[in-house]
Amino acid sequence: MLGADGRMGSTSAAAIEATDDLEVVARVDVGDELSAVTGADAEVALVFSPPDVAPEQAEWLIGQGVHVVIGTSGFGEERVERLREVAAQHEGVGVLVVPNFSIGAVLMMRFAAVAAPFFESVEVIEMHHPGKVDAPSGTAVRTAELIAQARAEAGSPAIPDATTHDPDGARGASVDGISVHAVRSRGYVASQEVLLGGEGEILALRHDSSTRESFMPGVVAALRGVADRPGVTVGLDAVLGLDRPPAPGPR
């Protein structure tokens, strides 16, 4: 467990210890040596370290032959590609990069990708607590990527938007052509809404996590499944059997 003293780390440790087949054999946080992981003969490392150190730690763990589940936010395509390069040199090591451990959130992303080609407009709004250091969230970025991919495969036209003047960025970030808006407010843990619009109708897909315990079934599933998937996998979809492509959109 890396980032063991953090909120996700401590909650995950309790969930792991509550299982019959998993146990935490090493807890690593700021100031601790990574060698504690290999010294304890850990089979899988769960990474919740800060974004500035997590990539380097993950690469070291892969080099030691340890399977890695990454829950740290901010692993974009560039970092994932770097992990693929490292993992390719260590056959049999599984790496699972998880933007969101909530099974409900994973399903919401899946539903959004299925629905996106059927609607003219799509936007993503994510809401998190003010202690979150990255924006947009990894979940929102992954959602936008899946939506854009589904629309491209279906041959969907460009999303209409007549905005030509936005000096303050009110239209949000653009992730693969999908507008993503980030809210940081006390009271949220992790929430996301996908708005899909067509002539005369709006479909809203929303998921809310009110406690970190909501992520624990996904954490446990990831730890159990990572060794069965050598190389780098992004998202819980494959572990949950949701890695089949979504149905095609309208023609």
From TrEMBL:
Its main location: cytoplasm. NAD(+) binds at G3, A4, D5, G6, R7, M8, G71, T72, S73, V98, P99, N100, F101. Residues 154-174 are annotated as: Disordered. Residues 2-101 form the Dihydrodipicolinate reductase N-terminal domain. Pfam families: DapB_C (PF05173), DapB_N (PF01113). The active site is at H128 (proton donor/acceptor), K132 (proton donor). It is found in: Cytoplasm. NADP(+) binds at R27. (S)-2,3,4,5-tetrahydrodipicolinate binds at H129, G138, T139. Keywords: Amino-acid biosynthesis, Cytoplasm, Diaminopimelate biosynthesis, Lysine biosynthesis, NAD, NADP, Oxidoreductase. It is an enzyme of class 1 (oxidoreductase). Its EC number is 1.17.1.8. PANTHER family: 4-HYDROXY-TETRAHYDRODIPICOLINATE REDUCTASE 1, CHLOROPLASTIC-RELATED, DIHYDRODIPICOLINATE REDUCTASE. Belongs to the DapB family. Homotetramer. This is 4-hydroxy-tetrahydrodipicolinate reductase. It comes from Aeromicrobium halocynthiae. The gene is dapB.
